[in-house]
Amino acid sequence: MTLWMNTNYGFDMLSAAHWEYLGTLQARRSEIKPDFYISLISGLFIALVGLYIIVRPKTRHIKIAKPILPKPTQKSAEKTSTQPIEKTENTPAVSPNSGASLGPRPMSPLGSRPPTVRPLTVQNQTIPAPKPMTTAPTIQNSNSPELERALEASEYIIKKCNKIGKIQNPLVAIAYNQSIFIISTKTSPDDMLDAIQTLVTIFDDTLGETANDISVRGFIISPSEPVKRQDELIVTFDSNADFIKYVNEHKNEKPKDYDAELFDAFSTYISTVTGYIGKV
Question: Half-sphere exposure (CA, 13 Å, Cβ side) for 149?
Answer without folding.
Answer: 5
